[in-house]
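Researcher: For the record, we're logging two predictions in this thread. I'll number them. Prediction 1 follows.
Model: Prediction 1, sequence and structure:
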Amino acid sequence: MSDVIRISDLRRMFAQAAQQIRREQDMLSRLDCVGGDGDHGSTMVRAMEVLEIEMNRESDQPLHDRLKDAGWSVLAVDGGASSALVGTFIAGMGGEDLGQESDCKHLAASFSAGLRAVEKQTKARPGDKTMMDALAPAVQAIQSAAESGEPVRLVFESAAEAARRGAEGTRDMVAKYGRAKFLGERTRGVPDAGATSIALVFQGFREAFSERKEA
Protein backbone atom coordinates (compact mmCIF):
# COMPACT_ATOMS: atom_id res chain seq x y z
CA MET A 1 0.00 0.00 0.00
CA SER A 2 1.36 3.39 -0.92
CA ASP A 3 -0.20 5.06 2.13
CA VAL A 4 1.73 3.13 4.74
CA ILE A 5 3.97 5.64 6.56
CA ARG A 6 7.28 4.36 7.87
CA ILE A 7 10.35 5.86 9.51
CA SER A 8 11.82 6.47 6.05
CA ASP A 9 8.85 8.73 5.28
CA LEU A 10 9.26 10.69 8.51
CA ARG A 11 12.94 11.12 7.79
CA ARG A 12 12.17 12.44 4.33
CA MET A 13 9.47 14.76 5.73
CA PHE A 14 11.80 16.40 8.22
CA ALA A 15 14.71 16.50 5.77
CA GLN A 16 12.60 18.37 3.22
CA ALA A 17 11.24 20.68 5.92
CA ALA A 18 14.75 21.45 7.14
CA GLN A 19 15.82 22.21 3.58
CA GLN A 20 12.98 24.71 3.22
CA ILE A 21 13.93 26.44 6.47
CA ARG A 22 17.63 26.60 5.59
CA ARG A 23 16.79 28.06 2.18
CA GLU A 24 14.65 30.83 3.70
CA GLN A 25 16.63 31.44 6.90
CA ASP A 26 17.52 35.03 6.04
CA MET A 27 13.96 35.89 5.05
CA LEU A 28 12.60 34.47 8.31
CA SER A 29 15.07 36.52 10.33
CA ARG A 30 14.16 39.68 8.42
CA LEU A 31 10.50 39.12 9.24
CA ASP A 32 11.44 38.59 12.88
CA CYS A 33 13.26 41.93 12.97
CA VAL A 34 9.88 43.68 12.86
CA GLY A 35 8.98 42.76 16.42
CA GLY A 36 11.55 40.27 17.66
CA ASP A 37 15.27 39.69 17.98
CA GLY A 38 15.84 38.87 14.33
CA ASP A 39 17.03 35.37 15.18
CA HIS A 40 13.99 33.32 14.20
CA GLY A 41 15.63 31.97 11.06
CA SER A 42 18.71 30.68 12.87
CA THR A 43 16.59 29.27 15.69
CA MET A 44 14.41 27.32 13.28
CA VAL A 45 17.47 26.02 11.42
CA ARG A 46 18.86 24.65 14.69
CA ALA A 47 15.51 23.09 15.61
CA MET A 48 15.10 21.39 12.25
CA GLU A 49 18.66 20.13 12.23
CA VAL A 50 18.08 18.53 15.63
CA LEU A 51 14.96 16.86 14.23
CA GLU A 52 16.94 15.53 11.27
CA ILE A 53 19.61 14.09 13.55
CA GLU A 54 17.09 12.46 15.87
CA MET A 55 15.00 10.95 13.10
CA ASN A 56 18.11 9.57 11.35
CA ARG A 57 19.41 7.93 14.51
CA GLU A 58 19.45 4.13 14.26
CA SER A 59 16.78 2.70 16.54
CA ASP A 60 14.06 0.07 16.60
CA GLN A 61 11.72 2.35 18.53
CA PRO A 62 8.14 2.73 17.25
CA LEU A 63 7.41 5.93 15.34
CA HIS A 64 5.65 7.66 18.24
CA ASP A 65 8.60 7.14 20.58
CA ARG A 66 10.95 8.51 17.92
CA LEU A 67 8.78 11.62 17.72
CA LYS A 68 8.69 12.03 21.49
CA ASP A 69 12.48 11.82 21.76
CA ALA A 70 12.96 14.18 18.83
CA GLY A 71 10.56 16.70 20.34
CA TRP A 72 12.32 16.65 23.69
CA SER A 73 15.64 17.22 21.93
CA VAL A 74 14.22 20.27 20.15
CA LEU A 75 12.96 21.58 23.50
CA ALA A 76 16.61 21.69 24.58
CA VAL A 77 17.48 24.06 21.72
CA ASP A 78 18.19 27.57 23.01
CA GLY A 79 15.77 29.63 20.98
CA GLY A 80 12.95 30.94 23.14
CA ALA A 81 9.28 30.40 22.34
CA SER A 82 9.72 29.24 18.75
CA SER A 83 11.86 26.19 19.41
CA ALA A 84 9.90 25.43 22.58
CA LEU A 85 6.59 25.30 20.71
CA VAL A 86 8.03 23.30 17.81
CA GLY A 87 9.50 20.83 20.29
CA THR A 88 6.21 20.64 22.14
CA PHE A 89 4.38 19.96 18.89
CA ILE A 90 6.70 17.15 17.81
CA ALA A 91 6.75 15.56 21.26
CA GLY A 92 2.98 15.86 21.39
CA MET A 93 2.71 14.00 18.09
CA GLY A 94 4.29 11.09 19.92
CA GLY A 95 1.22 10.85 22.12
CA GLU A 96 -0.57 8.86 19.42
CA ASP A 97 0.43 5.20 19.13
CA LEU A 98 1.84 4.80 15.61
CA GLY A 99 3.71 1.50 15.98
CA GLN A 100 6.51 0.71 13.55
CA GLU A 101 4.42 2.03 10.66
CA SER A 102 1.23 4.03 10.34
CA ASP A 103 -1.52 5.13 7.97
CA CYS A 104 -3.05 8.50 7.11
CA LYS A 105 -5.72 8.42 9.79
CA HIS A 106 -3.34 7.53 12.60
CA LEU A 107 -0.81 10.08 11.37
CA ALA A 108 -3.58 12.70 11.30
CA ALA A 109 -4.42 11.81 14.90
CA SER A 110 -0.74 12.26 15.73
CA PHE A 111 -0.71 15.75 14.23
CA SER A 112 -3.88 16.59 16.17
CA ALA A 113 -2.24 15.40 19.39
CA GLY A 114 0.70 17.67 18.65
CA LEU A 115 -1.59 20.65 18.17
CA ARG A 116 -3.38 19.94 21.46
CA ALA A 117 -0.02 19.85 23.23
CA VAL A 118 0.85 23.29 21.84
CA GLU A 119 -2.57 24.67 22.80
CA LYS A 120 -1.83 23.68 26.40
CA GLN A 121 1.41 25.68 26.34
CA THR A 122 0.23 28.92 24.75
CA LYS A 123 -2.90 31.02 24.87
CA ALA A 124 -2.29 32.16 21.29
CA ARG A 125 -4.90 31.08 18.80
CA PRO A 126 -5.50 31.73 15.07
CA GLY A 127 -5.97 35.46 14.60
CA ASP A 128 -3.24 36.45 17.08
CA LYS A 129 -0.43 36.67 14.49
CA THR A 130 1.63 33.72 15.67
CA MET A 131 2.66 30.34 14.32
CA MET A 132 -0.79 29.11 15.37
CA ASP A 133 -2.23 30.90 12.33
CA ALA A 134 -0.46 28.37 10.11
CA LEU A 135 -0.26 25.36 12.40
CA ALA A 136 -3.93 25.07 13.39
CA PRO A 137 -5.38 25.21 9.84
CA ALA A 138 -2.70 22.83 8.55
CA VAL A 139 -3.55 20.23 11.18
CA GLN A 140 -7.26 20.70 10.59
CA ALA A 141 -6.68 20.17 6.86
CA ILE A 142 -4.76 16.95 7.57
CA GLN A 143 -7.56 15.66 9.77
CA SER A 144 -10.26 16.52 7.24
CA ALA A 145 -8.41 15.04 4.26
CA ALA A 146 -7.50 11.87 6.13
CA GLU A 147 -11.07 11.36 7.31
CA SER A 148 -12.21 11.76 3.70
CA GLY A 149 -9.91 8.92 2.66
CA GLU A 150 -7.50 11.07 0.64
CA PRO A 151 -4.08 9.54 -0.16
CA VAL A 152 -1.17 10.84 1.87
CA ARG A 153 0.10 12.94 -1.05
CA LEU A 154 -3.15 14.91 -1.18
CA VAL A 155 -3.38 15.07 2.61
CA PHE A 156 -0.13 17.03 2.74
CA GLU A 157 -1.00 19.11 -0.29
CA SER A 158 -4.09 20.27 1.59
CA ALA A 159 -2.08 20.90 4.74
CA ALA A 160 0.62 22.89 2.96
CA GLU A 161 -1.93 25.08 1.22
CA ALA A 162 -3.82 25.71 4.47
CA ALA A 163 -0.58 26.64 6.23
CA ARG A 164 0.44 28.94 3.39
CA ARG A 165 -2.89 30.76 3.45
CA GLY A 166 -2.76 31.00 7.22
CA ALA A 167 0.73 32.49 7.21
CA GLU A 168 -0.10 34.96 4.46
CA GLY A 169 -3.19 36.02 6.37
CA THR A 170 -1.04 37.24 9.26
CA ARG A 171 0.15 40.08 7.04
CA ASP A 172 -3.01 42.07 7.87
CA MET A 173 -3.01 41.23 11.59
CA VAL A 174 -1.69 43.11 14.61
CA ALA A 175 0.55 41.07 16.91
CA LYS A 176 -0.88 40.14 20.30
CA TYR A 177 1.97 38.10 21.77
CA GLY A 178 5.69 38.44 22.39
CA ARG A 179 7.70 41.61 21.98
CA ALA A 180 5.80 42.47 18.84
CA LYS A 181 2.58 43.15 20.77
CA PHE A 182 4.09 46.39 22.08
CA LEU A 183 4.45 47.68 18.54
CA GLY A 184 0.75 47.54 17.83
CA GLU A 185 -0.21 48.75 14.37
CA ARG A 186 3.42 48.80 13.27
CA THR A 187 3.28 45.00 13.02
CA ARG A 188 0.54 45.18 10.41
CA GLY A 189 1.66 44.72 6.80
CA VAL A 190 4.32 42.06 7.49
CA PRO A 191 3.66 38.30 7.78
CA ASP A 192 4.48 36.67 11.09
CA ALA A 193 7.86 34.92 11.10
CA GLY A 194 6.61 31.96 13.13
CA ALA A 195 3.60 31.34 10.91
CA THR A 196 5.80 31.67 7.83
CA SER A 197 8.27 29.10 9.14
CA ILE A 198 5.45 26.65 9.88
CA ALA A 199 4.16 27.13 6.33
CA LEU A 200 7.65 26.30 5.04
CA VAL A 201 7.76 23.16 7.20
CA PHE A 202 4.48 21.93 5.73
CA GLN A 203 5.70 22.78 2.25
CA GLY A 204 8.61 20.46 2.99
CA PHE A 205 6.19 17.76 4.12
CA ARG A 206 4.27 18.17 0.86
CA GLU A 207 7.43 17.80 -1.20
CA ALA A 208 8.38 14.66 0.72
CA PHE A 209 5.26 12.96 -0.63
CA SER A 210 4.88 14.77 -3.95
CA GLU A 211 6.20 11.88 -6.06
CA ARG A 212 4.37 9.16 -4.20
CA LYS A 213 1.96 7.13 -6.31
CA GLU A 214 -1.58 6.47 -5.20
CA ALA A 215 -2.62 2.92 -4.41
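Researcher: Logged. Prediction 2.
Model: Prediction 2, sequence and structure:
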Amino acid sequence: MTTFATRLAVAERHERDVLDALRCAGWDAEMFGQGQLTDVMRNHLRNFTVVTPLRWMPDIIAARTLSSGRSHVVFVDAKAGDKWRVTGNHDIETAALETADTWQSWTKCPVYFVFSDWSVVTGDRIWGTGRVGPHLGNGSGTPYLLFPAIACLPFAALFGDPAMTP
Protein backbone atom coordinates (compact mmCIF):
# COMPACT_ATOMS: atom_id res chain seq x y z
CA MET A 1 0.00 0.00 0.00
CA THR A 2 1.38 3.42 -0.93
CA THR A 3 1.26 6.45 1.32
CA PHE A 4 -0.64 9.63 0.57
CA ALA A 5 2.68 11.50 0.21
CA THR A 6 3.88 9.00 -2.39
CA ARG A 7 0.61 9.20 -4.37
CA LEU A 8 0.70 13.01 -4.18
CA ALA A 9 4.29 13.16 -5.48
CA VAL A 10 3.39 10.93 -8.44
CA ALA A 11 0.27 13.02 -9.17
CA GLU A 12 2.17 16.31 -9.00
CA ARG A 13 4.87 14.98 -11.34
CA HIS A 14 2.23 13.92 -13.85
CA GLU A 15 0.56 17.35 -13.63
CA ARG A 16 3.89 19.02 -14.47
CA ASP A 17 4.49 16.56 -17.34
CA VAL A 18 1.04 17.26 -18.81
CA LEU A 19 1.60 21.01 -18.43
CA ASP A 20 4.93 20.70 -20.27
CA ALA A 21 3.41 18.53 -23.02
CA LEU A 22 0.61 21.04 -23.63
CA ARG A 23 3.14 23.85 -23.90
CA CYS A 24 5.31 21.81 -26.26
CA ALA A 25 2.24 21.13 -28.41
CA GLY A 26 1.70 24.88 -28.79
CA TRP A 27 -0.83 25.60 -26.05
CA ASP A 28 -0.54 28.38 -23.51
CA ALA A 29 -0.96 26.40 -20.30
CA GLU A 30 -0.79 27.17 -16.59
CA MET A 31 -1.43 25.39 -13.33
CA PHE A 32 -4.94 25.84 -11.98
CA GLY A 33 -7.01 24.62 -9.07
CA GLN A 34 -5.50 23.18 -5.91
CA GLY A 35 -2.04 23.08 -7.49
CA GLN A 36 -1.90 26.82 -6.87
CA LEU A 37 -2.74 26.53 -3.18
CA THR A 38 -0.48 25.95 -0.21
CA ASP A 39 -0.51 22.64 1.66
CA VAL A 40 -2.28 24.42 4.53
CA MET A 41 -5.16 25.58 2.29
CA ARG A 42 -5.46 22.20 0.53
CA ASN A 43 -5.73 20.58 3.95
CA HIS A 44 -8.53 23.00 4.85
CA LEU A 45 -10.42 22.02 1.70
CA ARG A 46 -9.99 18.29 2.49
CA ASN A 47 -11.39 18.89 5.99
CA PHE A 48 -14.09 21.40 5.05
CA THR A 49 -17.46 20.35 6.49
CA VAL A 50 -19.38 21.26 3.33
CA VAL A 51 -19.08 19.27 0.12
CA THR A 52 -17.58 21.69 -2.39
CA PRO A 53 -16.35 21.27 -5.96
CA LEU A 54 -13.27 23.31 -4.99
CA ARG A 55 -11.71 20.06 -3.83
CA TRP A 56 -11.73 18.56 -7.33
CA MET A 57 -11.07 21.52 -9.62
CA PRO A 58 -9.10 20.76 -12.79
CA ASP A 59 -5.29 20.99 -12.50
CA ILE A 60 -4.51 22.97 -15.64
CA ILE A 61 -6.04 25.71 -17.78
CA ALA A 62 -4.87 25.77 -21.40
CA ALA A 63 -5.70 27.97 -24.37
CA ARG A 64 -4.68 28.61 -27.94
CA THR A 65 -5.69 31.02 -30.66
CA LEU A 66 -7.88 29.60 -33.40
CA SER A 67 -7.60 30.59 -37.06
CA SER A 68 -10.57 32.93 -36.48
CA GLY A 69 -8.48 34.85 -33.96
CA ARG A 70 -10.69 33.72 -31.09
CA SER A 71 -9.33 31.76 -28.15
CA HIS A 72 -10.12 28.14 -27.41
CA VAL A 73 -9.91 27.47 -23.64
CA VAL A 74 -9.93 24.04 -21.99
CA PHE A 75 -9.37 22.62 -18.54
CA VAL A 76 -7.28 19.52 -17.91
CA ASP A 77 -7.36 17.19 -14.93
CA ALA A 78 -4.17 15.09 -14.91
CA LYS A 79 -4.70 11.60 -13.50
CA ALA A 80 -1.66 9.56 -12.54
CA GLY A 81 -1.65 5.86 -11.87
CA ASP A 82 -0.61 2.71 -13.62
CA LYS A 83 -3.18 0.05 -12.75
CA TRP A 84 -4.32 0.28 -16.38
CA ARG A 85 -1.15 -1.64 -17.28
CA VAL A 86 -2.58 -4.72 -15.56
CA THR A 87 -6.34 -4.19 -15.77
CA GLY A 88 -6.80 -2.32 -19.05
CA ASN A 89 -8.99 0.11 -17.14
CA HIS A 90 -8.58 3.65 -15.88
CA ASP A 91 -10.26 4.77 -12.69
CA ILE A 92 -11.58 8.14 -11.59
CA GLU A 93 -13.35 9.36 -8.49
CA THR A 94 -17.04 10.03 -8.97
CA ALA A 95 -16.61 13.40 -7.22
CA ALA A 96 -13.98 14.42 -9.81
CA LEU A 97 -16.38 13.51 -12.62
CA GLU A 98 -19.27 15.39 -11.03
CA THR A 99 -17.06 18.43 -10.52
CA ALA A 100 -15.83 18.30 -14.13
CA ASP A 101 -19.46 18.31 -15.29
CA THR A 102 -20.25 21.27 -13.02
CA TRP A 103 -17.07 23.13 -14.02
CA GLN A 104 -17.82 22.62 -17.71
CA SER A 105 -21.37 23.86 -17.20
CA TRP A 106 -20.22 26.97 -15.32
CA THR A 107 -17.35 27.92 -17.65
CA LYS A 108 -18.67 26.64 -21.01
CA CYS A 109 -15.16 25.21 -21.55
CA PRO A 110 -14.45 21.50 -22.03
CA VAL A 111 -12.76 19.50 -19.28
CA TYR A 112 -10.42 16.69 -20.28
CA PHE A 113 -8.80 13.98 -18.17
CA VAL A 114 -5.23 13.05 -19.17
CA PHE A 115 -3.91 9.75 -17.83
CA SER A 116 -0.35 8.51 -17.36
CA ASP A 117 -0.52 6.50 -20.60
CA TRP A 118 -1.13 9.85 -22.38
CA SER A 119 -4.70 8.99 -23.22
CA VAL A 120 -7.43 11.61 -22.95
CA VAL A 121 -11.15 11.37 -22.25
CA THR A 122 -14.10 13.56 -21.31
CA GLY A 123 -16.46 12.99 -18.42
CA ASP A 124 -19.32 12.16 -20.82
CA ARG A 125 -17.31 9.28 -22.24
CA ILE A 126 -16.47 7.98 -18.76
CA TRP A 127 -20.10 8.16 -17.62
CA GLY A 128 -21.08 6.26 -20.79
CA THR A 129 -18.52 3.47 -20.51
CA GLY A 130 -17.74 3.27 -16.79
CA ARG A 131 -18.87 1.02 -13.99
CA VAL A 132 -18.63 1.37 -10.22
CA GLY A 133 -15.28 0.14 -8.95
CA PRO A 134 -14.83 -2.05 -5.86
CA HIS A 135 -13.27 -0.69 -2.69
CA LEU A 136 -9.81 -2.27 -2.42
CA GLY A 137 -8.77 -0.91 0.97
CA ASN A 138 -6.27 1.64 -0.34
CA GLY A 139 -6.43 5.16 -1.73
CA SER A 140 -8.98 7.68 -0.52
CA GLY A 141 -11.81 5.15 -0.23
CA THR A 142 -14.18 7.44 -2.17
CA PRO A 143 -16.51 6.03 -4.84
CA TYR A 144 -14.98 5.73 -8.29
CA LEU A 145 -15.69 4.44 -11.76
CA LEU A 146 -13.62 2.02 -13.83
CA PHE A 147 -13.71 2.41 -17.59
CA PRO A 148 -11.77 0.82 -20.45
CA ALA A 149 -8.57 2.60 -21.43
CA ILE A 150 -9.50 1.96 -25.08
CA ALA A 151 -12.39 4.43 -24.63
CA CYS A 152 -9.80 7.23 -24.60
CA LEU A 153 -8.10 9.11 -27.43
CA PRO A 154 -4.35 9.70 -27.73
CA PHE A 155 -3.07 13.01 -26.33
CA ALA A 156 -1.80 14.08 -29.75
CA ALA A 157 -5.24 13.58 -31.34
CA LEU A 158 -6.75 16.30 -29.15
CA PHE A 159 -3.90 18.61 -28.26
CA GLY A 160 -1.29 18.05 -30.97
CA ASP A 161 1.95 16.17 -30.87
CA PRO A 162 4.38 17.76 -28.37
CA ALA A 163 7.33 16.30 -30.28
CA MET A 164 6.26 17.94 -33.58
CA THR A 165 6.00 21.54 -32.34
CA PRO A 166 9.15 23.62 -32.95
